[in-house]
Amino acid sequence: MPKNKDIKKVLVIGSGPIVIGQAAEFDYAGTQACRSLKEEGLEVVLLNSNPATIMTDKDIADRVYIEPLTVEVVEQLILKEKPDSVLPTLGGQAALNLAMELEENGFLRRNNVRLIGTTSETIKKAEDRLEFKTTMEKIGEPCAPSLVVENVEDGIKFAEKIGYPVVLRPAYTLGGSGGGIAHDREQLVEILENGLRLSRVGQVLVERCIAGWKEIEYEVMRDGNGNCITVCNMENIDPVGVHTGDSIVVAPSQTLGDKEYQMLRTSALNIISELNITGGCNVQYALHPDTFEYCVIEVNPRVSRSSALASKATGYPIAKVAAKIALGYTLDEIKNAVTQKTYASFEPMLDYCVVKMPRLPFDKFISAKRTLTTQMKATGEVMSICDNFEGALMKAIRSLEQHVDSLMSYDFSALTREELLERLEIVDDRRIWMIAEALRKGISYDEIYNITRIDRWFIDKIARLVEMEQTLKTTPLSAEILKEAKRMEFPDNVIARLTGNTERQIHEMRHEYGITAAYKMVDTCAAEFAAATPYYYSVYGSENEVEETRGRKKVLVLGSGPIRIGQGIEFDFCSVHCTWAFSKEGYETIIVNNNPETVSTDFDIADKLYFEPLTPEDVESIVDLEKPDGAVVQFGGQTAIKLTEALMKMGVPILGTSAENVDAAEDRELFDAILEKCGIPRPTGGTVFTAEEAKEVANRLGYPVLVRPSYVLGGQGMQIAINDHDIDEFIGIINRIAQDHPILVDKYLMGKEIEVDAVCDGEDILIPGIMEHIERAGIHSGDSISVYPAQSISEKTKRTIEDYTKKLAQSLHVIGLINIQFIVCGEDVYVIEVNPRSSRTVPYISKVTGIPIVPLATKVIIGHKIRELGYTPGLQKEADYFAIKMPVFSFEKIRGADISLGPEMKSTGECLGIAKTFDEALYKAFLGAGIKLPKHRNMIMTVRDEDKEEAVEIGRRFEKIGYKIFATKGTAEALKTGGVKAIPVNKIEQESPNLMDLILGHKIDLVIDTPHQGADRSRDGFVIRRNAIETGVNVLTAIDTAEALITSLENTDIKKLTLIDIATI
Amino acid sequence: MKAFLILEDGTVFTGTSIGSTRDMISEIVFNTSMTGYLEVLTDPSYAGQAVVMTYPLIGNYGITPDMESKKAWPDGYIVRELSRMPSNFRCEGSIQDFLKEQDIPGIAGVDTRALTKILREKGTMNGMITTNEDYDLDEILPKLHAYKVGDVVSKVTCEAPYMLEGTGPRVALMDFGAKNNIAKSLHRRGCQVTVYPAGTSAEEIIASKPDGIMLSNGPGDPETCTEIIAEIRKLYETEIPIFAICLGHQLMALANGAKTYKLKYGHRGGNHPVKDLTNNRVYISSQNHGYAVDASTMDPAVAQEAFVNVNDGTNEGLSYIGKNIFTVQFHPEACPGPQDSGYLFDRFMDMMKGAN
Questions:
Q1: Which of A591, A610, A700, A841 is the most exposed place for a label (fewest CB within 10 A)?
Q2: Residue A504 annotated as part of some ligand binding site
């Protein structure tokens, strides 16, 4: 029972779709908090628009609403469910902003609902720039000189008073959207205009630039009795100027003496006390590198990305404790779940070093600027733990899965000393590699420090790694050197490369000398107390402390690593459910993963957690020790699939679909043979290795063709080529991403794209439902709007799909999950892709059909049959409502990224619209994705020739609901011919007033811009789209999406939304 | 050079010699602070002990002007790794050089976590650091068993009284091995602080008519300090406000008939939660003690428990009934560690003002 007896039913608000700056960490926090609330016997109502999350499961909350996160929806939900309390501090900025609006508009008060966790006064004090500054001044905590401005003129005046450079921070935005550093008046005007627009309250803070100072963070907790503790502090290796989400971060701080450490700690406690926070809070500081001067940068009065990191870095469950505090408990009443002896009112002590590295999306956005600024760009992150910094850094690097395994992975050796000094000025994701090269070229620590302001201590650590490379290269490999290299976590393959041995030889040499990984426990207390939670990390040269476990069958579940575009939170959902299912079946479960943001790396999900890189060598060390009875790879995305071969070599049985069959689905020739045997058509195509071969195949098939590498995720490198020139360009790009697999060239079919996930037990299959994509084939399935049940295909086609799915699953001997994508042209069904593993749509289809696919697949893997699990095989009965999955993008965060959709995935997250009618579901889905129209009822259309016919129809419909349409010349003519009023506007390069003026005039709701296919992308369109996105205008680049949007707008009145509890499905 | 850490139970850790290469035998204790290694090294309470740092990276910010006494006191120093690159704007030298200058034998490269676990399971024990590769366990182990910490207070206390000038209350600080920041904390609040050697008689202190008496921290087994305890009893009998920290707290308890006992492995670090029983507030404290007061042996008419340790319920402070005396087991002067309980100095200030 909660300490506060008035709390009986709590509404928890989640953070919505994954976008840059608000990612899986809130699923982790929300899930932990909900479990913690349920533990207290409370009724939990959950609202989150993101269907891929674990928190939106019916096992996590009593009532689950996957609905848009808008004020109207929350109000309706409160009236329907009548919770007595709302907990808004676990759903990131999105939830906090919603709660604030409800508080400000008096709705909560009128309905006798209280905010628990932290009061609205506190939120306001911490979030409102002006109030925050006043509060800090009152308690004597220094902030950088700053002024909140509401117009550009005031900004210029203040900047000129305090001097450039200045930092700009819009109020109430997440992930630092719209912020930046301005070095002169021109930059100031540009960033400030944008920031004022993006801020919810039209305020931007202009402040003294403290770039180059040390950036330090403290995670603090406070209870209602005023007790405060710090969970951990963290030091950003990249000094102030790079968003902490994009920085390499180390915990605890490494270069602070006790005086600095305690000075900032005391400050953090003063702040949390003055703000009267009850729960978790993050305080960020800038600390002058040469004095004790510091500034408070910002305070987040809620759990955050940093708090997730701090939880994983220390073992202290911040979200769980925050939830208990919200219920009235004090820190000294809450047991430390890790030690089971101590209480939450003690501060974790680390006896290891933690390094976090960001996972940046530049491999997806090749045209984007790699520069790191105060605007976060990372989609995810990895964390590693070691007893030395060098080792932690090396492990973090190889956890990134970006084809990097050491400080030699980006080759800058061709750069001269002068060039290097110049390049060091650029702050981008490869800076530590640049520093390593600078050290190799003999550039001094001081020179590097003076340019980068990265503390010499870190530079020295990079130097140690560089020295070890040199030693390995030049000295005969002795046991001593090998031991030291392994202590620094050099992987065997890197040692092999440097010493001219094979990886196998290094492996054998290690075992001969007894140099093997040992595992240490994360116990929150530096071994002072015995801990009950087996959460491990590897080290070399120390004693192993993993306790041998026997008795139960043991299964190794391989996680999916960092969140990246194409491999998101869905796979964590799958890994966690698989783990739970194995556990229920009596297995001992072991998770290996390296993503600190996720539920799977929470300390109490599996029986044992190994926080480790997911490379064959790292996994083998665990296998040697644990000797699992089997491993599951089909739930962890490509990360886990890629380990299949290595696991088999280690002698670990792959549970479920066998490796040969996974290969058969990826291997063109084997797969073609299977299709032929089953009599299933697929688009014709061929396998090639070179551009010449590709062109030959393409010309034989006839353009357009689809070009893609095999063995990739999220359609990485996939493109539609319309001519030979495109082929040359695409093959070049594919080869740049270190491709050792063949390249596939297929005939591009224009048809409806259909997707199914199915469970197969070797004989029978179970298809929960058929999903149809709104956008035609050619747009990556992850970026398409997906509709369940499929709308526009015939009953006969559905049977064909069921039949093909069964045949394919059987032929591939699938045991577990299979995902198949089809193209339907008329009644013809073609298979375009088969993945014998879990997919992005698994959480979505599970939730909307109520069929727990992952637990079912897990049971099937263990040996149960679909029939004995209580299901009738085949395609299941369609639901009597519609569920639409809508992709969500983070384009505004990535300067220079092209937003037009194509075969390469670009979305970072998704949301759901579920309703009794298709139109309402669609409306909800758009709403959930943040598209709330109409506003000004002005739009721009500029479409390619092949879309013009459909564009006229769409234009007509928009006109009917009151839209004024601006269009470029060709489009305007087409519209007029079709009887739709259109105002022609000049293209960008033409004189004003042109498209750009319209966009920048802020009166435009929507741009429909369908770019030409292939490489023939005009610069003009790119600039239009970028500018529109950066000014917060909605841009649609597929005609089908536009059609869907107008359909939703025509039909729905927001007051009539029906809310569906998916826990009752 | 190789070095070896040999424990009383026969466990041997091999590492690299740091600091002095001479042999040393001492009681091995661990400290979990992540920063403040210099303050730990110069805390006189570590006299007679060798310290293991559980945080693996030591020396990162070098030697800064933060010594808590005039020299380093531990008999030995045991770490995982010493940083070769000290980096801090106040850095005056490396920890390697400091250990050599201070003639402290040490060992690096030890699996300090494994060592800590042994000490946690088996309790604090004696050990030896040696660079002699031909060490003979049969010869060494009996010596380790025989080692006793002995009288260390007399080693660490000041030789003659000295004064920190101030215009506020006059405080007599009994130096049983005081950390600098105790005097500084009082001095910062305006006090005139006179520091007295541990052997100073109660009569001399009382004759100086101080506004308050401060009993400091210090090393060793409190029960062995029988003479000091007798003097403290006399101080207790006066009406002078007294504030005591750590050893001072234990000695005041002993002077009032309570008992002390040795903890299995002590409290040493900067993360210990203590609860103020007057308002149930919890503060994170800096701690360094191997002995504790058994609160159940204290006559409830004499003193009542004022603070307890949230983790293990051990006594953390006493408030003396009918007296202007309160004593704490933890370190409100911090250095290293959290400054949360610094308000206790203010409470002492109020007591002294109230008494006037």
A1: A700
A2: no
Give the closest-approach CA distance of B62 to chain A in angstroms: 9
> In angstroms, how far is CA A170 from the centroid of its own chain?
23
Question: How much of chain B is in helix, strand and coil states, percent to nearest 5?
Answer: 30, 35, 40
pLDDT digits (tens, 9 = 90+) for A559-578: 999 999 999 999 999 999 99
Residue B298: how many CB atoms within 10 A of its CB? Answer: 20
pLDDT of residue A1016: 46
> CA nearest A520 in B: which residue?
B113
**Which of A345, A349, A520 is facing B32, going by the closest CB pair?**
A349
ipTM score: 0.97
pLDDT(A700) > 80: yes
Confidence of residue A713 (pLDDT cuts 50, 70, 90): very low
What's the CA gap between A195 and A209, in Å, rounded? 17
| pLDDT value of position A1018 | 58
Q: Which residues on B lie below 8 Å from A343 (Cβ)?
A: 273, 310-311
Residue B220 identity (one-letter amino acid): G
| A206 has binding-site annotation | no
CATH architecture of A528-651: 3-Layer(aba) Sandwich (3.40)
Cβ of A252 within 8 Å of Cβ of B335? The answer is no
Contact between residue A674 and residue A808 where contact means Cβ atoms under 8 Å apart = yes
**Tell me: the pLDDT tens digits for A847-902?**
999 999 999 999 999 999 999 999 999 999 999 999 999 999 999 888 888 888 88
Do the annotations mark residue A176 as ligand-binding?
Answer: yes
What whole-number percentage of chain A has pLDDT above 70?
97
Q: If you classify domain A356-515 with CATH, what class do you get? A: mainly alpha
Is A1048 exposed, middle or buried, given 0-12, 13-18 or 19+ CB atoms closer than 10 A? buried
Nearest CA in chain B to A332: B310
**Predicted confidence (pLDDT) per residue in A40-60, tens digit:** 999 999 999 999 999 999 889
Q: CA of A115 to nearest chain B CA: how many angstroms apart?
A: 24
CATH of the domain at B33: 3.50.30.20
CB-count burial class (<10 Å; 0-12, 13-18, 19+) for A257: buried
Give the residue extent of every domain in chain A.
9-116, 145-209, 356-515, 528-651, 684-748, 933-1053
Look at B87 and A545 and tell me if their CB atoms are within 8 Å. no
Cis amide linkage into residue B336, ω under 30° from 0: yes
> CATH code at B205?
3.40.50.880
Residues of B in Cβ contact (< 8 Å) with A252: 34-35, 55
- Cα–Cα nearest to A798, from A843, A839, A755: A755
Of the residues B88, B94, B285, the best mutation for testing chain A's interface (the one with the most A CB atoms within 10 Å of its CB) is B88
Asked if the Cβ–Cβ distance from B340 to A255 is below 8 Å, we say no
Mutate which: B12, B13, B39, B57, vs A, most A CBs within 10 A: B57
CA distance A731 to chain B (A): 47
* Fold held by A9-116: Rossmann fold (3.40.50)
**Peptide bond before residue A993 is cis, with ω within 30 degrees of 0:** yes
Chain centroid to Cα A650, Å, comes to 31
Q: Among all residues of chain B, which has the CA nearest to that of A290?
A: B89
B334 to chain A: nearest residue by CA?
A: A262
Dihedral pair phi/psi, residue A852, rounded to 5°: -75, 85
Neighbour tally for A236: CB within 10 Å? 24
For domain A145-209, the question of CATH label 3.30.1490.20 is answered with: yes
Which pLDDT score is estimated for A1?
Answer: 57
Where in the sequence numbering do the catalytic residues of B fall?
246, 331, 333
Using the predicted structure, report yes or no on whether residue A1028 has a pLDDT greater than 90: no
B285: containing domain: 153-355
* Residue B256, min C-alpha distance to chain A (Å): 31
> Which conformational region is residue A623 in: left (phi greater than 0), alpha (psi within -120 to 50 degrees), or beta?
alpha
Q: Could you tell me the pTM of the whole model?
A: 0.94
